[in-house]
Amino acid sequence: MKIKNSPAACAVALFVVLFTVFFTVYIASYEEEGEFTQIGDSEFYATPQGKIYALIPSGGKFELKGVRADKFGVLASGGYRGRNVGADESAVYCGNLAMSGLDPTRARVIGNGYFTDGRVSYFCSDVGERNYELGAFAKAVQTAAYALLDADKPQSYIYKTKRVSSVNLTPVLGFGFAAGSASQGGKFSENSDADDKKGVRDGAQIGGDKGGKKAYFEGEELEGADADGLKYVRDAHGRTSDFYVTDGGNVYFKSSRLAVKFTPELHEAAHFSGVRYLLEPASGAVYADGNEFTPEFAPYSLPFGVFGAHAYHLLFRGKDGIYFWESKNDGESGELKRAAADPFTDEISPLAGSVFVSGAQTYFVQSREIWSRGKSGKRLSSRRTELFRLETSEQWRKIGLVRNGVYGAVYANGDKIYYFDALGTQQGIGASVYEIADVAAMEALTRPYDPSGQNISGADIRKMIKEERLVPARGELIFEAVTYYESGETYLFWGVAAFALLVVIAGFALGAIKRAKGLKIMKKSSVK
For 14, which DSSP code? Predict the structure, then answer.
């Protein structure tokens, strides 16, 4: 009897294969917490068999190959920083990876993530990050090999390490920063937190780098930096940046020196969707995580502000257009995209939340996702930040704030009253501007905040939307910034192919083992 192939039958077969493989992977990689004992407050765990594992955030536990629990200790056991650094008699480990050349018998904590033995120095991050050198296809193959063939677990997440040219280091600024010191000897803290002065004792003599000071970030040298003058760049509110620093002349993002020079007006303009933007107002130069915006379109400005409750993109106004930065999957690079020609001839002034005024016109920003169906099911196709023009008849009148402005504001224009939302799509509020349909809703929104009483909640606002007491405002679409997402079907195909191949290989291997055992049994029987 012939079996007819159909899309449904193929889909069922594919589901069975995938379910079987993924279930096998799950069973093989499942870690019974009862089998692991945490070593103090560290990120290391011991097993009853005497093995040592390092916990890497998002990646799980990874074995330190060849390390015995009775010979292992945490190097910086007294503080939060350095909880992922340990040593046995043969090596010092950052997570599960050895820092080659670092002598475990002489290794000491400097601070800010730096370690030295007096001859070799290393930076070890305590933040797990994706291993971008491991591609999606390689990860799929290694995961299947780990599950089915007892291979090593794929290193999808790592703690970053970097060997440092200087051994005479002093922690400066915050975590990740250090400066070379010309002094001989020194103090070392058993606590790797630079700000924690407990447990300070005399350390090993450290020499080298006598010719002056060098500055480092995560082990990378800041080219041309004056370590003595190093300080953080500040943002528009006076708070210190996490990664932009200056020595008063040069400006750096992490360890990369930027083309822009320091001015008192230079500041970190926004931290938006994981990207840190630097703005130098006089020249209009902008950097996104250290990547310079195309100079030919400068000067850039941020007329729409940095309000991101209803935006997927931070919009900049530059020569001949509206621009946005689109990050790449490697977490470092990206490119400047042009959303549209500049539709404005007048200055742009924020009104409240995602609403802006230019000339006699009112505009609002709103975000939207587009989902589509493919062979692999429903997937995200694009994310859009859209600018609409709102029809108005008069000047805006402020009615009141919603929970002191944290949730939004209420404004009137002509005979219409609007709620400008500040909660955003993450709180289940799909639109940035709502027309208020009844007076009771307006009164509930603008009721004065009572610290000891009952106040309006996000659930109350969502209920008003569901009951159509708040109706999304309609406007004319002016332009949209769009980020498209590639289909994962190619990766799925190759992943399935790799899994299927490994399943076949495993099947042949198991069959060969069984046949070999069968032959042995037959031989024994024949001898008898």
Answer: H
pTM for the whole thing?
A: 0.76
Position of tokens 């108005």? 392
Give the sheet arrangement for strand 321-327, strand by strand.
316-318, 321-327, 334-340
- Decide: 161 and 94 in contact? Cβ < 8 Å: yes
Burial of 499-521, coded b for 16+ CB within 10 Å and e otherwise, reads beebbeebeeeeeeeeeeeeeee
Residues 472 and 389 in one domain: yes
Please check whether residue 285 is in contact with residue 319, taking contact to mean a CB–CB distance below 8 angstroms. no
Give how many domains the chain has, as a whole number: 3
Domain identity same for 378 and 449: yes
Low-confidence ranges of the chain (pLDDT < 50): 1-5, 26-33, 183-211, 488-496, 500, 503-504, 507-528
Residue 326, domain member (yes or no): yes
Q: Is residue 7 part of a domain?
A: no
Burial of 139 (C-beta count, 10 Å sphere; 0-12/13-18/19+): middle
pLDDT in the model for residue 277: 96
Same domain, 395 and 515: no
Residues 92, 198, single domain; the answer is yes
pLDDT value for 76: 73
Residue 293: CB atoms within 10 A of its CB come to 21
Give domain status of residue 48, yes or no: yes
pLDDT of residue 174: 87
Structural domain that includes position 452: 301-484
**Is 239 part of any domain?**
no
**pLDDT value of residue 487:** 61
Q: What is the pLDDT of residue 414?
A: 92
Residues 425 and 499 in one domain: no
Tell me how long the chain is: 528
pLDDT of res. 522:
35
Cβ(170)–Cβ(178) below 8 Å: yes
